[in-house]
Amino acid sequence: GGTHGSLAVPSLEVWRNPGKRSWWEPLDQKRNEVDDEDPLVLQIRQFCNVIRGDEPPLVSGREGLETLRVIDAVKRSAATGERIELN
């Protein structure tokens, strides 16, 4: 788990404790609903809508970069068995 919460993949269940960290306080649990449609189709459709100016991007370039940093850290941690710090 992380400092403030955990995410289960692929179920997209999120557990977090919005207060002080504690072994005794219950965690908030939320399941994020996702469309059953092919994610690649949804991504390409949204990208085309952004290019045409029909809608704003769902995430910024900065958010995309941060996501790639997390994915890279997960892969490096899995390969080395070590904890990877992200600043």
Globular, elongated, flat, extended or rod-shaped: what is the shape?
extended
Domain unit count: 2
Sheet of most strands:
3 strands, antiparallel
Strand order of the largest sheet: 1-2-3
- The residue fraction in helices comes out at 25-40%
Explain how this protein is built.
38% of the residues lie in helices and 14% in strands. The mean pLDDT is 85. The chain is extended and about 50 Å long. It folds into 2 domains: 1-34, no CATH class; 35-87. With 87 residues, it is of the alpha+beta class. It has 2 helices and 3 strands, in the order βββαα. Strands 1-2-3 form a 3-stranded antiparallel β-sheet, with no helix packed on it. Strand 1 and strand 2 (13-16) form a beta hairpin. The protein has helices at 39-51, 61-80, and strands spanning 5-8, 13-16, 28-31.
Name some characteristics of this structure.
single chain, 87 residues, alpha+beta, 2 domains, three-stranded antiparallel sheet, 38% helix, extended
What is the element layout, followed by pairings?
Blueprint: E1 5-8, E2 13-16, E3 28-31, H1 39-51, H2 61-80
Antiparallel strand pairs: 1-2, 2-3
Describe the structure concisely for a colleague.
By secondary structure, this protein is α+β, with helices and mostly antiparallel strands. The protein has helices spanning 39-51, 61-80, and strands spanning 5-8, 13-16, 28-31. Helix content is 38%, strand content 14%.
